Every structure is written in C-alpha cells, then in structure tokens.
Amino acid sequence: MHSLWSFALFMALGQFSPGPDMLLIMKNSLNHSRRAALFTVLGIGCGVVLHVGVALAGLAVLVTRWPGVRMAGGAYLLYLGLRLLWSVRRAGGGVAVMETGTAARLGDGAAFAQGFFTNLTNLKVVAIFSSLIAAWLPAGSPPWRGPVLGGIIIGQAFGLWTLFVCLLHWEPLRVRLLAWDRGLNAIFGLLLAGVGVSVFLG
C-alpha cells in the first residue's frame, strides 16, 4: 500500500485527470509549435516544484486560504478560454490559421508564463499533494521518504507531460486532430472558461 511504486502509479494516473494543466497543454500543442508546448510544460513543471515544496513544508492549509491568489487563477483561466473562443469565431479555428503561417506565434516566455501561472494559481494542487504525500508517509518513515515522494511528483510532471506533447505532435495523430481544429478549440475554450468560472463560484 505504501510502496513508492504504488505512489508513482497513482500519481501517473492522476497526472492525466482532466484539469487546467492538461487543457492548456493540449491547446498549445494543437495551436502552436512543439517548442511552445514544451515551454508550457516547463512552466507547469516549475509550478509543480513550488507546490511540492509548499506541501512538504506543511503550509498547504495556509496557502489554500488565500482568496486573492485563487481568484487571480480563475480570472486568468477565464481569460484564456474567452480568448480562444474569440479566435475560433474570428478566424475559424486557431490551428488552421497557424498552419497557413498567419497566426501569431506563441513565444517561449509567453508559453512558459501560461503554464507556470495556470499551475501555480490552482491551489487545490497543494492540498492534493499534501494529502497524497501524507497518505504514503506511514508512522516511522525515514526522513528521506517525503522528499523522494515529492521528487516522483516533480519528475512525472516534467516527464509525462513532455511525452504527451510529443504524442500530440506525432504526425498521424496530429493530422487527425488538426482536421477537428475548430471544434477542439471551441471545446478547450469552453472548458477553460468553465474552470475559471467554477473558481469564482467555489
């Protein structure tokens, strides 16, 4: 039950549960270059590093009570969602425009900032990490076990999301997804905006 392997498997499955990080990676992967998507992953990974640090330091309860940070995160996700929906309406789908070379390029810094801010302001992540680490820290655990559990979370965030980006840029799959660009962008926009609104209502 408390083995490192079971924790790694549980976290690997949890990484791909639907949420703001996954939506943002899929959006940037399908609308922009692989490089932009990888910088998005880098931003998300750096946010995860901070979340894990806070969880290991035992500050999760305090951080999750900061309403200003939570509201800022909701506003940002709502902004990203509405912006994507506007691009679908204006240009008939961001991916198709990108493929013709007329879409605005997402720079490295902007891609990193999107990933970092989206992950960092999702304060539920801190509580989740804290709960999971505590569940896999039975009484009498050696002092190194907590940092190792945190390292597993961080390593998977960088590694699995990078593999996910590479999968989305695999040509046979990408061609199929690009054929559905308008619908996918509309879905991503609605979901991102919906998550943002749920933050305000929750």
Structure description:
- With 202 residues, the chain is mainly α.
- Helix content is 80%, strand content 0%.
- Helix 1 runs parallel beside helix 9 (145-168).
- The longest helix is centred in the middle third of the chain and has 25 residues, at 67-91.
- The radius of gyration is 18 Å and the shape is globular.
- The chain starts with a helix and ends with a helix.
- Mean pLDDT is 79; it is low at 93-103.
Main beta-sheet strand count, sense and barrel state = none
Compute the CA-based radius of gyration: 18 Å
Tell the overall outline.
globular
Count of helical stretches = 11
Task: Compute the separation of the termini in Å.
Answer: 33 Å
Keywords:
202 residues; single chain; mainly alpha
Put the structure in a nutshell.
Helix content is 80%, strand content 0%. By secondary structure, it is mostly helical. The chain is globular.
Write the layout of secondary structure elements.
Layout: H1 4-15, H2 20-31, H3 34-57, H4 60-63, H5 67-91, H6 94-99, H7 108-120, H8 124-135, H9 145-168, H10 171-179, H11 181-201
Helix pairs in contact: 1-9, 2-3, 2-7, 2-11, 3-7, 3-8, 3-9, 5-11
